[in-house]
Amino acid sequence: IVTDPKHSWTTDLATIADSTESTKPKKLGQLTVHAEEELISKITAELTFRCSDLENKDFFSKSDCFLVISKKLESGATIPICKTEVLKDNLNPQWKPISLKMSQVGNKDIPLFIECFNFNSNGKHDLLGKAQKSLAELEKLSISKKGENLFVPMYIGKDQQSKVLKSQLFVEECTESVHHTFLDYLLGGCEMNFMVAIDFTGISYHMLQMEILDCQTRYITLTILDAIQEVGDVLQFYDHDKEFPAWGFGGRPIDGPISHCFNLNGSSGNKPTVSGIQGIMQAYGQALSNVSLAGPTLFGPDGVITDQQETIDALVMASDLPLSVLIVGVGGADFKEMEILDADNGEKLHSSTGRAASRDIVQFVPFRDVQGGDISVVQSLLAELPSQFLTYMRNNDIPPKTKLPTI
Q1: Cβ-based neighbour number of residue 277 at 10 Å
Q2: 274 φ/ψ angles, rounded to the nearest 5 degrees
Q3: Cα-Cα-Cα-Cα dihedral of 306, 296, 360, 231, to 10°?
Q4: Which of 121, 126, 264, 382 is deepest in the core (most CB within 10 A)?
């Protein structure tokens, strides 16, 4: 910590990570920063789990089962570190392989809690049984091909005991490998292109204007503009030229028809780019004066997507591309339909032809849920971006490049 303001220097983590020799000669001296990523953070255990004889909790069908793996903290609390997909109507499920990073686990001897649940749409999932095993013990189960009986906690008076079930947990396969990290790709010169599309539909703005009556200063500035500023301030460091394509949709540009994709800067043709985050803000401010709020809202009047299946079809196709879609929901609407696109319930999106998305590429955050909270909109919105990026790279066998040092 530098206490003398005359001897301070401000930088960002992206600049430090990008520098192989980070020396900054100054009149007052020189500061050298050394940073490295430990190898343990790249070691990943891949496990394939299955269960047998699970209890049926549903009346008209069989249980919809998924696993949650958690780790116990020093404080005594447990935190989930991984979960499987939901397998419907199956009392003997075998899930797709899941990955556990050693940096999350800590070491192979730390106990892990493996809990099996029956999925309920209301979020109150039924516990079907649990087991406590370290990663080393899970490896032994994989080798022996034996099952581990699940148990459920039960109370007799004030004493907690365990009821052993006939349901069993099996580890079909357990392997270790070194997985490249998000930072490996950034150090190899990989860049991200930041693109913005803003909703100009009349219904969306009408809802904001209704909320203005309660709090005038929160109108556009603390909603759409704030979201762009916060997210853009982070992502701009990974875009070398700071030239950002920006569009609007659901509005009527001057002397033109209603458009669901128009250049925010007012230009025609294939010239949607603006310079820097301030360029987006300025173009948006000008567009508010030059674009009439219109409709229909094909991507969500009051949060309900009227072209939902077409949107899902497009997202399924885009799941094969190096693309992530980050959506900020503005206003007090019911965003239930929008949350379906996020696929955080473990179920993949399926197109109208039945094709499943190759990966989850959507992260949706209602701005009202994070505004003024402990977690910023940036943290919530970008939480899944590294894993989405890595999934694409691994699916396509693309390793990071070794960046040559600059002279």
Answers
A1: 20
A2: -130, 165
A3: -140
A4: 264
Tokens 């430990």 locate to 38
Instruction: Look at residue 345 in the predicted model and tell me its pLDDT.
Output: 61
Q: How far from 374 is each of 154, 223, 377, 378, 380, CA to CA, in Å?
A: 35, 17, 10, 12, 11
Which pairing describes strands 126-134 and 159-178: parallel, antiparallel, or unpaired? unpaired
Residue type, 212: I
Q: Which residues contact 318 (CB under 8 A, 6 or more apart)?
A: 325, 361
Alpha helices in 40-146 (DSSP H): 102-105, 135-144
Residues in the chain: 407
Chain segment 293-342, per-residue pLDDT in tens: 655 545 443 544 557 788 889 999 999 999 999 888 776 666 777 777 87
pLDDT digits (tens, 9 = 90+) for 147-201: 999 999 887 777 778 899 999 999 999 998 877 888 888 888 888 889 999 887 7
Q: Please, how many CA atoms are within 13 Å of residue 239, restricted to the half-sphere of its CB? A: 19
What's the angle, vertex CA 45, arms to CA 190 and CA 386, rounded to 5? 25
